[in-house]
Amino acid sequence: MVGDKARGEMNAFQRNESKETLFTFISAGDDPPKGDFPVQKKSPKLCGSNYPLSIAFIVVNEFCERFSYYGMRAVLTLYFLSFFHWDENLSTAVYHAFSALCYFTPVIGAIMADSWLGKYKTIIYLSIVYVVGHLIKSVGAIPSLGNQVVHVILSMVGLFLIALGTGGIKPCVSAFGGDQFEEEHTSERSKFFSIFYLSINAGSLISTFVTPVLRGDVKCFGEDCYALAFGVPAALMVLALVVFIAGSGLYRKTPPQGNVLLEVCKCIGFAIKNRLKNRSRQIPKRDHWLDWASEKYSKQLIGEVKMVTRVLFLFIPLPMFWALFDQQGSRWTLQATKMNADFGIYVLQPDQMQFLNPLLILVFIPIFDLGLYPLINMCKFNFTPIRKMATGMILAGMAFGLAAVVELKINETDMPQLVPEESLIRVLNLAKNPVQVTIQDRDLFQQPVEAFQNPAEYSKLILNGEQQSLRFTLQHQGLSLAFNYTVKEKSVYSLIVFEAEGSLSSRLITDLEAKPENGLAAVRFINGLSQDVNLSIDSKRFIAVQKNYSASEYSLLERDKYNNGKCITEMGEFTLELGLLDFGASYTIVITNVSGGDVKTWKSEDIKANNVHMAWQLPQYLLISAGEVMFSITGLAFSYSQSPASMKSVLQAGWLLTVAVGNTLVLVVAQAAPMAQWAEFVLFTVLLFAVCVIFSIMGYFYVSVDPEDLEEKEEKRETSSRGNMISLVTQKTKL
C-alpha cells in the first residue's frame, strides 16, 4: 500500500483548477522563487522536449525510496512476531507506533527545508539518516549478532532513523520535482506528477510482493531471512541517494523562503494568548476568536487562517479511517498467517497480500474517474466530496466487517482458549485393542478409545487449583490399571496408551497450546520401537528419539510434502514418508515398526490445518481500496480547493497528522483493550460508522467557499480603502 497517500496527492493535482499551485500544496510552504533570487540555470531537456533531464533522477530516486520503505514495512509485523517472539498485540502496537512517527516527522522536514536548508540539502541529509537507519535495521536482523536485547535495541534505533528520514523527505521530494519546471511549462509539470505518482505505486507494488519472498523463500542462518528482506530495501535506499546526488549539477535549487506553517501556528497561538490575557477587561467582543491576533498580524493572514481552520475542523473525524486502513500491514497480515495460502500454481506469503492495495488503486482510479463518477452524474445525483468521503468510510467499515466474519471462520480450527484451573486432554491409543479411560471419577470419555484412530476432540479437565495430581484408570481386556499424573492449568496433554512387556502402560505428554505461527506446520515423533532412532526430515533437520514410546520435541516446518526423510536404526536406514504437513496444523507421527525395507508410521492431526483460503481476504481488500480512492483522493482535492494558495502546505501537514493520529489510535486499542481479534474488528467497524455519521453531520453544515473569490473581495476592499484614503488626502490638499 502507498501509505504516504501520494497517489491521492497526485490525483488531487488533476482535479485542482489552479495550475499555479500544482506543487505548492504538497511542498510544506514552498513557492516558486520570487524577488531578487539568483537566476537558476536551465537544465538540459529530455529528447528535445520541455521536460528537464533532472526529473529523471528524481523519479528514479522516488521509485527506489518507496521500494525501500514499503519493502521494509511489508515484513515488519512478522519480524516482530517471529524474530522477537512478541505477541500479536505488542507487534501491532510497535508497527503502528512506527507508522505514526513516519507521519509526525514530515513537519520536521518541512521546517528544515523552508526555514533553514532548502529542499535539496534537506533531502540529502535526511536520506543519509534514512540509509543509516536501514543499515542498522538490517544488521539487527542477523541472529548470530548478540542476544535479543541487542536485536531489539538495534531494530528500534533503525526504525527511529527510518521514520525521521522517510517522513522528513516526504514534503520535499515531490515539490523539488515541481521546482525543476519553468513557470510556462505547467502542463509538463502536471504530467510529471502523474509519472511521479506511478513511480511511487510501482515501487510499492513490486516491493510488497518481492520482499516477503526474500523473507520466506530464502533461508539464512537456518530460518527466515529477515536480514536479506531488510538488506535489499537498504540497498535500494543507497541507490536512491546515489541517483539523487548524481543529478546534482542539473537541478534548479530554490533557497529557503520561510515556513508558512510556523507563521500560522504563531498567529493562532498569539490569538489564543491575547484572548486569555484580555478576558477580564471590558473590551468589545470580536466576530471571530482569530480576530484577537489583529494587533500583530495582517487581516489577510488572519482571513486565510480562518479558511484553513474551517477545513482542519473537518479533519477531526478523519483519523478513524486511517486507523482501519493501515491495519492491512498489521492485523490483516496476522490474519493471513492463519489461512490457507496455496493458490495452486503459487503459494503466497501472508505478507504478500499487501500488494493488492497498490494494484487495486491503479485499477480503481481510472474506473472511478472515467466510469463510476460520470455514471453517477448522469443519474443527476449530487455526489459531493463530503458524500464521497463518507462513502469511503462506509466501504472501509464494511471491509472490517468482512474481516471479522473471516476471523470467526478461522477460529473454528483454533485451540480453545483456557482460563485458570482448566486444561485439555485427549487419549492416543497405541495398543491393539480399545481402551476405556477414566480420570479420578471424571466421566470425560464416554466410549472406549479405539486403537490407532484419530483421537476425538480434546476434553476439558477442571482442576482444583494451579495444578493437581490425578488418578488415571485404564480398562483393557478385563484388566484395570491405574497411573498417577500431575496436571497443570492452562496446559494441553495427550495420554499415550501402549503395550509394554505384555502389559498396558501409559505416558502423559504435553501438546501445543495454540496453532504454529506464520502458517508453519508442527510435527513431533513417538518412537514405538524397542530401539533408539535418528530421524531426518528434510536433509537438514536430525531428531533423536529414545525407544519405548518416548516423544520428541515439536519441529516447525514449511508447508510441504515430506516423503524423502530418513529413519536410521540399528537395523539400517529406511525411507520416512510423512506426506503433506499443512498450513498451521500440528501432527504426531508414531513409528510403529520396521518391516522389510520400510518403516511403518501412523499420523495423527492434533490441531486442524488452516482451512480458510487466503482468497477470502480479497473482498475486504477490494472494499478498503475502493474506500481509499473515494476518501483520500477526494479529501485532498476538496480540502485544497477550500484553502488559499499560500496555505496549501498547512493542509498537507494537517492531512499527514490525521494519518499519524489514526495509527496512534490502533496502538492504544492494541495495548489498552486486548480482546478477541474478531471483536476488535467489529469494534473498529462500529467506531468508523459512528464517526462517519458525525462527519456527515459536520459536512452537512459546512458551507463551501472559493478562496479565489474571497481573495478578490479582499483585494477590492483594499483597493476601495486605498481609493478612499487618496480621496481624503486630495480633499485635504484642496482645502
Could you please describe the fold and organization of this structure?
There is one protein chain. With 735 residues, the chain is of the alpha+beta class. It folds into four domains: 54-258, Growth Hormone, Chain: A, CATH 1.20.1250.20; 260-297; 312-413 and 613-715, MFS general substrate transporter like domains (Growth Hormone, Chain: A); 422-607, no CATH class. Helices cover 51% and strands 15% of the residues. It contains 19 helices and 20 strands. The chain has helices spanning 6-15, 54-74, 76-83, 88-104, 106-117, 119-139, 148-179, 186-216, 226-246, 260-277, 299-314, 319-325, 331-336, 356-378, 385-411, 618-641, 648-672, 677-701, 707-734, and strands at 219-220, 223-224, 422-429, 436-439, 459-462, 467-476, 479-488, 492-500, 503-510, 521-527, 533-536, 542-545, 550-551, 555-557, 560-562, 565-569, 572-576, 579-581, 586-595, 598-607. Strands 10, 13, 14, 19 and 20 form a five-stranded mixed beta sheet that branches. Strands 5-3-8-9 form a four-stranded mixed beta sheet, with no helix packed on it. The protein is elongated, with a radius of gyration of 33 Å. The protein starts with 5 loop residues before the first helix and ends with a helix. Residues 2-39 and 728-735 have low confidence and may be disordered. The chain crosses the membrane at residues 67-86, 92-111, 123-143, 149-173, 194-214, 226-251, 307-325, 355-376, 388-406, 621-641, 653-675, 681-703.
